[in-house]
Amino acid sequence: MLGHFTHLEEEWRWPDLRRFWEHLAETHSVVRYDGRGIGLSDRYSGEFTEETRQCDLDAVLNAVGAEKAVLLGISEGGWTAAAYALEHPGRVTHLILYGAYCRGAQARPGHDPEEDQALVTLIRKGWGRDTPAFRQIFTSQFFRADADATLIAHFNELQRLSADPDTAARYHESCHKRGDGRDLFSRLTIPVLILHSSEDLAVSADEGRLLASIIPRSQLVLLPSGMHYFPSDAAVVAKAARAISRFLRPDS
């Protein structure tokens, strides 16, 4: 499910970005979606809230007739997935959190509200331009400097196509209104797998460790990667896919 900005068609065109989903689809039915106002969805001028994200997820599960489901929440989508699982205990059987957090940006050490507001301004001014210079500032939080240049270029373009500048800015602001959600995550009672890149640039691996410490009986797997976005490296993808398979089918 959502992890900031998505565009399902553009992601699928890039082999390195679809590898993860192809691995999961070998043994599971995988359903993904673009949230309102993002990717292939219609433009949306309203407010982005926790409620709108919950409604989008619920609508997708209803549309595919999923009476029970495993939720995979990536980055900020982990918060949405956890909240939904708590509100629908009979519908969500397992929860997988990738690059997620229980402390919103405001509650993390070192948060600088002026820097955050400056980033919002840059998004509004430069997100939709042909040159990726403005989007590159955002991209640098997801990939290390030594990452594949073609992958970085594709991600820059993916951002531009996924949302217009105003939508991108409003969605970013809505996510960064989150505070301390440790109480929410500590109430989870279903099986939870936490996947986190050991050198994540956007959301420190310490956030993954914190999740593991407060979610009862959860499992933590640290991936040998610096990417915040879902993995593209073949070895890391294989490790993540194996961890998910063992988690969902422990006796197989």
Written overview of the protein:
There is one protein chain. By secondary structure, this protein is α/β, with parallel strands linked by helices. It has a single domain, classed as Alpha/Beta hydrolase fold, catalytic domain (Rossmann fold), CATH 3.40.50. The chain is 47% helix and 10% strand. The chain has helices at residues 8-13, 15-25, 50-63, 77-87, 113-126, 133-139, 149-162, 165-175, 182-186, 205-214, 234-248; strands at residues 69-74, 92-98, 192-197, 219-223. Strands 1-2-3-4 form a 4-stranded parallel beta sheet, with helices on both faces. Helix 2 (15-25) packs parallel to helix 11 (234-248), helix 3 crosses helix 4 (77-87) and helix 5 packs antiparallel against helix 8. The mean pLDDT is 90.
Strand content: 5-15%
* CATH fold topology: Rossmann fold
| General form | globular
Q: Number of helical runs?
A: 11
Overall number of strands: 4
Overall CATH architecture: 3-Layer(aba) Sandwich
Class inferred from helices and paired strands = alpha/beta
Features:
single chain, 252 residues, alpha/beta, Rossmann fold, four-stranded parallel β-sheet, 4 strands, globular
